[in-house]
């Protein structure tokens, strides 16, 4: 059974919100009573997600946003505040995976792409969320890192560098903004059963049986389990939690 939260009267902003962990988290915020802005590069899919949430009686806003473009991120956050009047919570989830590669052979453009989305995109999202939260004097931000932000795996150097960067970004900003009433944390998901992971399995970039065996719990995680971790970090129950990189990984990094 999942814990319940009451976010009535509050506003959440979620990137990478059209599917997987982002959509599950946006839905969880909405079901807890928050108005939710769903931002994603895939405009048609995020519009469909918002239409579904609205049909269930939730307040939701669809935003087409490529997080590699800071101006689009700024516009999406501003539109959220213009529509709902404030910004209380954010889950910066948008990210990409890249095929495994020998560190000596990976192209610079691949390195730049994964950092543009996974690190610079979170930097831009957090920056513009903080502009509004700073004026309010309150807020909670959760940035999506990865178990790849805590460990290294052969063939994943560029991806893991981007996710390690998210943890450094989170920790420094958390210390800066804790005295101003804003809490910033990161989550580090393990291998989660999402469309991105299904695509990796289909392409032969990930073996499902091996991935399940690598997580001591013996299975992949679910998007809903990530959503519940995000909601807890945004809730009053985590009001003394600042600057953590929380593994939600079935025990992977505890080995």
UniProtKB/TrEMBL annotation:
InterPro entries xrefs: NAD(P)-bd_dom_sf (IPR036291), SDR_fam (IPR002347)
Q: Which family does it belong to?
A: Belongs to the short-chain dehydrogenases/reductases (SDR) family.
- Species in which this protein is naturally found: Streptomyces sp. 900116325
**What Gene3D superfamilies does UniProt report for this protein, alphabetically?**
NAD(P)-binding Rossmann-like Domain (3.40.50.720)
Q: What is the lineage of its organism?
A: Bacteria, Bacillati, Actinomycetota, Actinomycetes, Kitasatosporales
Keyword set, alphabetical order: Oxidoreductase
Main enzyme class: oxidoreductase
Q: What is this protein called?
A: Glucose 1-dehydrogenase
Listed EC numbers: 1.1.1.47
Molecular function GO labels: glucose 1-dehydrogenase [NAD(P)+] activity
């Amino acid at each position: 059974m999942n814990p319940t939260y009451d976010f009535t009267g509050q506003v959440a902003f979620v990137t990478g919100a059209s599917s997987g962990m982002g959509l599950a988290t946006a839905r969880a915020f909405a079901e807890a009573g928050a108005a939710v802005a769903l931002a994603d590069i895939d405009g048609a899919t995020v519009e469909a997600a918002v239409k579904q949430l609205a049909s269930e009686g939730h307040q939701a806003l669809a935003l087409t946003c490529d997080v590699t473009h800071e101006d689009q991120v700024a516009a999406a956050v501003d539109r959220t505040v213009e529509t709902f009047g404030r910004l209380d919570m954010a889950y910066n989830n948008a990210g990409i995976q890249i095929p495994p590669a020998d560190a000596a052979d990976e192209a610079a453009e691949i390195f730049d792409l994964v950092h543009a989305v996974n690190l610079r995109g979170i930097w831009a999202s957090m920056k513009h969320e903080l502009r509004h939260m700073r004026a309010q004097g309150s807020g909670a931000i959760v940035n999506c890192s990865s178990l790849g932000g805590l460990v290294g795996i052969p063939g994943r150097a560029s991806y893991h560098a981007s996710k390690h960067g998210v943890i450094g970004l989170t920790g420094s900003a958390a210390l800066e903004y804790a005295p101003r009433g804003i809490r910033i944390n990161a989550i580090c998901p393990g291998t989660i059963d999402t469309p991105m992971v299904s695509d990796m399995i289909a392409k032969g970039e990930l073996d499902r049986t091996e991935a399940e065996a690598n997580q001591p719990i013996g299975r992949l995680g679910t998007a809903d389990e990530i959503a519940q971790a995000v909601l807890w970090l945004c809730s009053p129950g985590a009001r003394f939690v600042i600057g953590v990189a929380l593994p939600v990984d079935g025990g992977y990094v505890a080995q």
